[in-house]
UniProtKB/TrEMBL annotation:
Enzyme class per UniProt: transferase
Protein name: Putative cysteine desulfurase
SUPFAM superfamilies hit by this protein: PLP-dependent transferases (SSF53383)
A Pfam family that the UniProt record links to this protein: Aminotran_5
Keyword Transferase carried by entry: yes
Keyword hit for Membrane: no
A GO molecular function held by the record: cysteine desulfurase activity
E.C. number: 2.8.1.7
Length: 419
């Protein structure tokens, strides 16, 4: 277990840039990982290396051949990392852009008069895309309401709304507002039990850094991640699509290969940094297990990450050392409840009687980086049902420490006495 090895925690932290110091602020605790995780040092080096190469893919020269090989290697690495023995991976502008494109394509190819299903818990990246594409394709949209108190939507919730004429479905793997994760495999099964040929598209952007990715077990058609939330960098998204979704008519250049989904020349460096991320998971899996296979090490790393982040969020909620946890502070409300096994590396709270932006400013002055989520177009679907105008999002990753949690708890404990 990661928490039992200070040497391993130190080795993990040493692989990330700016793990405890902001280049603009100085020393700080980074609890804003849902807004973008820390970047692997290897990713920084790889990005610089490929940014300097003037050649493009698809040319007959040694540099171009090497770039193509880099991309092919990254796609093979992704197949192992996400356990996707079929289908294809490709890069796009961002996770949001990819979700819009895939949902639009599925809706454009759906039978006339059929239905699209999605949940009220979803991030607007998928929900907005589904609602807009449904309207343009003259389809009907079915909303699956989530449970506001727990932040969950379940397979039975989907099953209660499903009809045989549902042709497209969207699922959120984890909420970036509350950190609550959904059972994608169970929800997909509930959908296919009623509509076996439905195209199922999953937003995995928040989940990807916090546990297992196992596409083969989900029985879905598309899955999207944003690498800047999985220890890489900004500027691109990664999508996986099934063979049958690959074959759908979609936006493409005239006479281009029909299986191609990328637009223009993609940045080889973005693909190369994906390989750095996969290599990191393999390294970590070797540190926490005796596994020797690539996929087995990645699975071991994912299990260790999930267990350690659960340990950290439990310490945050229940207390550590002589510090009371958030649940024992009368001025604190925890979104999703204090006892929620579906939580993934994130605790959102409200301080009674104090606007969340003021709390975030106060914590920042203490060297603790958090973030305000407001009831706007990004977060109102989660906050409005709770009667909240805002909340403080405390999002962590497996390179955070229990000492950093203690620093946060100490600062929040003093809030009622702070002007």
């Amino acid at each position: 277990m990661i928490q039992d090895s200070p040497a391993l925690i130190s080795a993990i932290r040493d692989r990330f840039a700016h793990v405890d110091t902001c280049p603009f602020q100085g020393p700080r605790v980074f609890f804003e990982n849902a807004g973008g995780a820390l970047t692997l040092k290897s990713v920084v080096e790889t990005s610089a290396k490929y940014a300097a190469i003037p050649d493009n893919q698809g040319r007959d020269n040694p540099a171009s051949h090497a770039l193509v090989q880099t991309i092919n290697t990254a796609k093979a690495d992704l197949a192992v990392f996400m356990n996707a023995p079929s289908g294809q991976f490709f890069a796009g502008e961002s996770g949001t852009e990819l979700l819009f494109r895939m949902i639009r394509t599925a809706c454009e190819n759906a039978p006339k008069g059929s239905k699209v299903i999605g949940s009220s818990i979803e991030h607007p990246a998928s929900r907005s895309a589904a609602c807009r594409s449904t309207e343009k394709a003259a389809l009907d949209y079915l909303n699956v309401p989530h449970d506001a108190a727990s932040g969950l939507v379940t397979a039975s919730d989907y099953a209660a709304v499903m009809t045989p004429d549902v042709s497209v479905a969207t699922i959120l793997h984890a909420s970036p507002v509350s950190g609550i994760g959904m059972d994608v495999a169970a929800i997909a099964k509930a959908i296919r039990d009623v509509s076996p040929d439905c195209f199922i598209i999953v937003d995995g952007i928040q989940h990807a850094a916090h546990g297992q990715l196992d596409i083969a077990s989900y029985d879905i058609d598309a899955y999207v991640i944003s690498p800047y939330k999985v220890f890489s960098r900004h500027g691109y998204g990664i999508a996986w699509i099934s063979d049958r979704m690959t074959a759908l008519p979609h936006d493409m250049l005239i006479d281009a290969p029909e299986t191609g989904w990328e637009f223009g020349t993609r940045d080889t460096g973005s693909y190369a940094t994906v390989s750095d991320v996969v290599a990191y998971f393999e390294w970590l899996g070797g540190e926490v297990s005796s596994e020797t296979g690539r996929r087995e090490r990645i699975e071991a790393a994912g299990a260790a990450i999930h267990a350690y982040e659960t340990h950290l969020t439990n310490a945050m909620i229940n207390g550590t050392g002589n510090l009371p946890g958030l649940r024992d502070m009368p001025h604190v409300m925890i979104l999703g409840g204090a006892d929620n096994p579906a939580r993934e590396g994130l605790v959102s709270i409200v301080i009674k009687g104090m606007p969340s932006p003021d709390v975030v400013t106060y914590l920042n002055a203490q060297g603790i980086r958090t973030h305000t989520r407001k009831a706007d177009h990004y977060s109102s679907n989660v906050l409005d049902p709770l009667g909240l105008s805002d909340c403080i999002r405390i999002s962590l990753c497996h390179y955070n420490t229990e000492q950093e949690v203690a620093q946060l708890l100490g600062a929040i404990k003093e809030l009622p006495e702070t002007p």
